[in-house]
# Entry
Amino acid sequence: MFGSRALSGSAILTLLAQPLMAADCPIERAIYAEVETKSELHFRAASGDNTPVSHGFSLIAKSAANPLDGHVIYDPDIERPVAMIMNNCPEGDVTGADLAACTVWKGIIYSADKTTGHIDLLPPEGSGAPDSLLLPGFGPAYAQSSFGKSLETAPWDVFEFKGCAS
# Structure
């Protein structure tokens, strides 16, 4: 009846049982987990068209009562995406000192492919999510923050793809 395009029941179950691959999930819906502290990065679409922010995300950590706000801004001077994780930053007209006081981590964010080992910059929104993310210096910066001082184990700088938010 369906010719060569018909799928058997076992083929359908096999397809349904396949784990979601990172590339099947757009980066703006990707969830990444860090293995040491079980912290997670939950990406979301950047808000608004008239903003320098290229990605938005939240850091959800057991040591923080509330998610920490994160965003990525492409820095044309260094031609790299610079990510920042912030805690209760003031809004409006603020000074550099104000921002420094509420910034938990700031750095270039990289993506990594598990199969090839290729390291690249964070892809733009609309692209498939990378297998993992590398946030150089995140672990030490978080461990020195008010959230990390009580941790028995410092987080690592690598976050692995965990899933895709609906």
Q: What stands out?
A: The chain has one domain: 27-164. DSSP finds three helices and ten strands in the chain. The helical segments are 9-17, 96-102, 138-144.
